[in-house]
Specification:
Order of helices and strands: EHEHHEEEEEHEEE
Number of domains: 2
Radius of gyration: 16 Å
CATH class of the largest domain: Mainly Beta
CATH topology of the largest domain: Tumour Suppressor Smad4
Distance between the termini: 20 Å
Number of strands: 10
Largest sheet: 10 strands, mixed
CATH architecture of the largest domain: Sandwich
Amino acid sequence: MLENKSLTELELSLLVQNLRRANEELPIVRLSNGDLAKTLGIKGEAEKENVGRDEMPLKEVGQKLNKGELPKITGESPIQEIVCDIGSALLDGKLYWFTSHLMLWNKRPGNFSGHFLAVMNAAWWGELNLSVRAHPGDGKLDSFESNLGFREAQKMKARARTGTHLPHPKIKTTRLVAETFEFEKARSVYLDNVEVTKAKTIAVRIEPAKLKIRLQ
């Protein structure tokens, strides 16, 4: 059972990985920070530089997720709730889940130049409103794909703080239930800000109404 406390973005991601892999029902949870919390208007979310500052380093979390070694969270469940969707991602044949977003960066997180792909369940990545139409309860995922030069990327990033970067002629956005992305070379895949593995074939799908979150 869940501890009667607010979960961080990282704790929620690990909890979902644990229970979905075991094919168990997700409990009602409360959130303290992160992009999903911000999209839902939950107060007290941390800034992007604070997200993931839990007991385990993000790199180690990704390694454990890839090996199936997942931390457990225990305690009691709260009562009031809003029903949200989650996303599933089949990465070269291995199944994972995400609550906020899946991202493929060029070289490093935060670098929007070169090819960038995001599949969003939440609208926000830190202080950037990347997918202005995304909502975690609408039964859809929102993809955001771009291939920008350095200066174009800087301008886009500045405008994304207010969600005014769209429409853009070099940014493709799509609302989807399921989609498959193919790449010639394996790309690092980040789920909820954790690098979990590298993959050439990425198949994403919405899992509607799987997660119940208490609003604070």
